[in-house]
Backbone:
């Protein structure tokens, strides 16, 4: 178990959020490549649909991070009726601190970008589980199952 790296980033409403804002409760911190792309929209909408159950089961907050701008996050959130926080990390400092930035390949081209990773952070600020290269279709259910298991222990 390791301590979750701290952050101070703006959300879709231009308000700053830090890791300390979530102290004392579970946090589902997920990193995604780009607003309004098919996989990222699917993942966000699945978290939107599961958020109430996730919160009821564990008291967890869901937070998404990408390098898109605050304005892009606002548009993405409004268009998809997202009911959780999106944080903007244009310099990808937090993304890198969590290990979600690195080399990628697409159509034979190599570049650096955001990996679709999620970190489950306990109420003490420790990363208790890492999900690397998640499936946007099934990931929210996987998180819910794991939160139930952690709460049972």
Residues:
């Amino acid at each position: 178990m390791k301590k979750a790296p701290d952050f101070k980033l703006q959300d879709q409403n231009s308000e700053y959020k830090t890791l300390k804002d979530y102290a004392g409760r579970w946090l589902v911190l997920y990193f995604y490549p780009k607003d309004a792309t098919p996989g990222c929209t699917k993942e966000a909408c699945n978290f939107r649909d599961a958020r109430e159950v996730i919160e009821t089961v564990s008291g967890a907050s869901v937070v998404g991070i990408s390098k898109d701008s605050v304005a892009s996050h606002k548009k993405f959130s409004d268009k998809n009726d997202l009911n959780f926080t999106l944080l903007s990390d244009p310099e990808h400092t937090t993304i890198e601190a969590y290990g979600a930035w690195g080399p990628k390949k697409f159509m034979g081209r190599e570049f650096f970008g955001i990996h679709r990773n999620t970190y489950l952070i306990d109420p003490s600020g420790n990363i208790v589980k890492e999900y690397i290269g998640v499936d946007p279709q099934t990931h929210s259910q996987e998180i819910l199952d794991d939160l139930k298991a952690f709460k049972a222990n």
User: Anything to note?
Assistant: Strands lie at 2-3, 8-11, 16-18, 27-31, 61-66, 85-88, 101-106, 109-114, 118-121, 126-131. The longest strand covers residues 61-66. The mean pLDDT is 94. The two ends are 16 Å apart (CA to CA).
